[in-house]
Amino acid sequence: MAADGGTDYVLYRKDRVRCVKGGDQLEERRLKPDSPTRRMFARCCNTAMFLDFTKGHWLTIYRGRLSGDIPPATTRMMTADRPEGAALPDDGMTNYPGQSGKFMLKLLGAWMAMGFRRPAVDGVP
User: Fold this and answer.
1) Which residues, 6 or more positions from 123, have their beta carbon under 8 angstroms from its beta carbon?
2) What is the DSSP string of the chain?
3) I need a surface site. Which of 16, 20, 60, 97 has the fewest CB within 10 A?
4) What's residue 116's pLDDT?
């Protein structure tokens, strides 16, 4: 958890993600059996890796699970839900109390570019 009470993550289109190692160690967990969101954990160490909204075209990957050249964070969303007393840093990043219309348009644009497909993620059960 970040100092402001949030969780840092990065969204990627499913057609641009591939699990190159350890996919056989991933285990899904759902709040309810018919829940459209599955949380993927590494069985070996019980570490959360990413969220997969199965009805969507993107993966929500925990930022700390990525290595290499990771794009810088640009936006904080849902800041109205942060824990009481958690202050937002004065770092010039855009803060939205809920969802951002600009963000939703970017998601829609990416889905259009994918031909409105919801592909499986290569290397993930």
Assistant:
1) 18, 19, 20, 23
2) --TTS---EEEEEGGG-B--S-GGGEEEE-SSTT-SEEEEEETTTTEEEEEEETTSSEEEEEGGG--SSPPPP-EE--GGGSPTT-PPP-SS-EE-SS--HHHHHHHHHHHHHTTT--PPPBT--
3) 20
4) 96
Closest CA to 58 of 11, 100, 104: 11
What is the residue whose two structure tokens read 């641009």?
16
Q: Is the pLDDT of residue 107 over 90?
A: yes
Predicted TM-score (pTM) of this structure: 0.82
Instruction: Give the sheet arrangement for strand 58-62, strand by strand.
Output: 9-13, 58-62, 47-53, 37-42, 26-29
For residue 117, CA distances in Å to 18, 26, 55, 57, 67 come to 16, 23, 10, 7, 27
CA distance 31 to 29: 7
62-90 per-position pLDDT tens digit: 998 888 888 888 899 999 998 888 889 88
